[in-house]
Amino acid sequence: MNFEWSPQQDALREQVRALLRRELPADWDEHSRHGPGSRWQTEFSLTFCPRLAAEGLLVPHWPREYGGRDATAWEHFIIGEELWAAGEPRGPQYMNANFIGQTIMKYGSEAQKAFHLPRMAAGKAIWCQGFSEPSAGSDLAALGTRAERRGDEYVINGSKVWTSYAGLAQHCFLLARTGGPGKSGIAIFLVPMDTPGITVRQIPSLIGVGDIHEVFCNDVVVPETTRLGAEGQAWPIIGYALSHERVGIARYAFSRRTLDGIVALLQLRGEFDGELVQYRAGQALAACEAARLLVYRVVDQRARGLPPSADANLARVAVIRADHAVADFALGFVPDTLSGGAFPLHLSHHERAIAAGIASGAAEIQLNLIASEHLRLPREARA
Question: Where is 217: in which H helix or E strand?
């Protein structure tokens, strides 16, 4: 098989790199060390993403009628790789491009599409994702936030936790229970964050300046028109959204850049001649390449219009393992650089790798899905 990129695809990479050289501030690496979850990066996205949109690089894979240019899934991922390798200057707006916008495009009403999609395509929309709850983390079917219907409105009560970007978000992609227990009783709401009754409280972050919050809904009244899809339809919509989210983050590109930087540092120090360090570097490199190629498998399926599959879960686990392999390599061979006043690239990567197995669905949940949907194992065989 030929894995080479076409001249047009190489030109697209260079276009993105040229924009990054032009638009990122000189102290970008220091500012972006905490990843797209930092408040600074959330604010920066409102400056950067409109410039990305002006060059047709924010949502190129969207249809023209929604602000894109009918580009292929491959073009979208080439852009994502370059942006993630640079530290993801889109901030939270990568969610709009990767899955929130496309989910609204597929399941939203004409009014919802007309209102939300142009703002996302222009790079001016900050969203948060109201999934996890104190007693329902990765087990979304157990969520307890309730939306009670009263005429043509809903009254929402409950709380969400670990909600990234909620401090500056304009809207929340919120899950709430409208019916009985289990998957069939859940609905999705596109809730304006300035609705009366919403309280946002920041959670101190283990890994630095994270934009992570608790969100409390106390008699939050929203019109029926904010509901995405029908009552009880949430589960297939969530599945569609998560299949895009889980591989839409090209963490492997940042991991590979980090690994190359560590190897270069070790070579400069004269510490890369031993068999053990080269073996460990090779293992980390293999993990990055495995993650990249498994993600490419999912991209190829999308490009051919195939439905979501368990391959997205396999790719997600591979990306997590690549993150951890590079972080472990840094801990093993350049531990002296992971503290102090300087902000080397691999320190930024180490902080992000801590959350890699939690964000976008915990690694354990991905493994359960692989067991059931890919290996077809009976439940008793997974213990």
Answer: strand 212-223
The CATH code of the domain at 250-382 is: 1.20.140.10
Tokens 């329902």 correspond to: 136
Q: 126-136: per-residue pLDDT in tens?
A: 999 999 898 76
Residue in this structure with the two tokens 């999609």, named with its chain if needed: 117
Residue 241 CA to residue 4 CA, distance in Å, equals 30
Give the CA distances from residue 365 to residues 200, 243, 360, in Å, rounded to whole numbers and listed in that order: 27, 13, 10
Q: Is 128 helix (H, G, I), strand (E, B) or coil?
A: strand
Render pLDDT for 296-355 as a digit per residue (tens, 0 to 9): 988 888 888 888 777 888 888 898 899 889 989 988 998 887 765 444 555 555 566 556
Which secondary-structure segment (H or E) carries 285? helix 275-303
Would you give the end-to-end CA distance of the chain in angstroms? 39
Q: Which of 214, 162, 225 is nearest to 192 (CA)?
A: 225
Residues 6+ apart with CB under 8 A from 321: 287, 290, 291
> Domain coordinates of the chain in residue numbers?
7-125, 128-232, 250-382
For domain 128-232, the CATH architecture is Beta Barrel (2.40)
Which CATH class, in words, describes the domain spanning 7-125?
mainly alpha
